[in-house]
Amino acid sequence: MIIETHIDKIERHLDSGEIDLIFVITNEGYSPQTARIHGEKFSRQEDETLQDLADRALQQYRMQHKPAKKVSVLIMDCRL
Asked: Could you give the CA distance from residue 36 to residue 58 in angstroms, rounded to a whole number?
């Protein structure tokens, strides 16, 4: 069985003037249960869409890790 990897790009412009470029990696046809950003794991909540998971994970990640530069590139791995 061949599992295709899908990569989406999200660009967020924050009120602080910072810009996040996020690349979300998923396996085509599979509903991810977790998201990982630089090794930190965020579990999907019941009835949460992938977009909601991505938004929540990014918000929680950013609360703990303030970017050193105005533009940040983040990779969110949602593969099984």
From this structure: 10
| Alpha-carbon dihedral 56, 24, 48, 80, rounded to 10 degrees | -120
Nearest to 56 by CA among 69, 39, 43: 43
Please, are residues 40 and 63 in contact by the beta-carbon 8 Å criterion? Answer: no
Please write down the HEC assignment for all residues of the chain: CCCCEEEEEEEEECCCCCEEEEEEEEECCCCCCEEEECCEEEECCCCCCHHHHHHHHHHHHHHHCCCCCCEEEEEEECCC
pLDDT at res. 80: 66
pTM of the model: 0.75
Tokens describing residue 44: 């999907």
